[in-house]
Amino acid sequence: MKQTKAIKTLRGDVRIAMTGTPIENRLSDLWSIFDFLNAGLLGSPKEFKAFTARLKDAPDGYAKLRGTVSPFILRRLKTDKAVISDLPEKNETKQFTTLSKKQVALYNALVKELDAVFNAPESLSGIERKGKILAAIVKFKQICNHPDQYSGQAGFEPKHSGKFATLAEICTTIMEKHESVLVFTQFREMCEPLSRYLHQLDRFARNRYDSATYKAKLKKNGVRVLSARENISDDASGVLMEAVLEGMAEYYSVELAEKITRGMAINVEKCLSNGGGLSLGYSVDKDKRFIINEDEAAIVRRIYEMYTGGFAVADIIRYLNNHSLRTILINRRYIGYYIHKGGEIPDGMPRIIDDETFAKAQEIMAKNKKAPARAKAIEENYLLTTKLFCGECKAALTGVSGTSHTGAFHQYYQCAGNRRNNGCKKKTMKKAYLEDMVIVNTIGFLIPATIDMLARSIEEQCERERNTDDLKRVNKLIRGNETATANRWWMSL
Question: For a disulfide at 397, which of 125, 381, 413, 433, Cβ 3.0-4.6 Å?
Fold first, then answer.
């Protein structure tokens, strides 16, 4: 608050605010920035809060607010290739870890201490309570990093931290694949202990062959390997000590790989997540169990509804902004199968799609593989394909053609439901008659007043679709699923 007040006392002909935090985080941050840049543009805090509360339920969302502030914002995104061309997509994988006994003891002690403070007869004021909570959050983070960070000691024994153990597993896998890792930490004081931990001799290589190879290459270039952690002498005993340490490191690496493989096999038996990418529609809870992500599951269900309802594949793909449709339609996880390395376990995952709908989608895919309606429509120029729907069963009308016994070629529109024998009695209609009727009526409808009305409606619809949360969510999912996993691992300590 003091810093904000001090900044707003600055005087100048031009004011520019630079921020690395997206303005969508909190609307109050947006108001504060613009109160500095152009005071009064967004009104008072009370007026702005009431204004944004109304926009929350508006049909076009925050479009009005965006239109007000966008002329003043020059925004550069990491996804902008003009900023950086080779930046990989960010892929986040949650890695759950456990606390050591020492961490558990300190964590529980701090919880009890806070409980006594907040339940004391003399209640804290609002600002004092918030201060206590913020301070406690920092302490909890320190305990979860390493007990010695919380207590201010310098030991940082790896065995006392669950995060250090998890970091070792991750870095071991990365090193064996000859990949790189960048470790982020929120606390500057953790940098030195982490560096010391990751630069032990047994982190140089995971087997004796690699160690000998690396040392030979370095020696050829005039570089000698020294350990900052182990005190290895230059005499004969040092040769023996180094060989023992490298043997122990290789043993640890092989044993760790066996444990990981065994743990993954146990997870498969229990239908738990082994990490990696998730199918659209699923998330993983803290116990590594698969749960349905309702936001994404709604998209999956919509895909099946559109496909089994007669929509052309091209229309569904446009709806999903070129998402990989076939991958979703053939994914047996959506009917409850847990799949790992080619093996399947029925009812191992929560079901999103029922068997009947899934089977129907497979049947349609098999038929469309031989004669896709969209390809036929393009080849024979059926103008109304994807735009006509049956008035009886609501299925799509698609183009069909045939040759009579006289050799004459005929083209029709036929209800997809009638073609699949689902009980619809809708008869086929001649292509030329139906298209001519639609064209004539459309031309008669397009008077100047109607054209203006249609233009406004289309513009409003485009604006709504461009700003919907659903579209943003789908675009985010598309980028995550279609981009190759970056050759980096990220872990926050």
Answer: 413
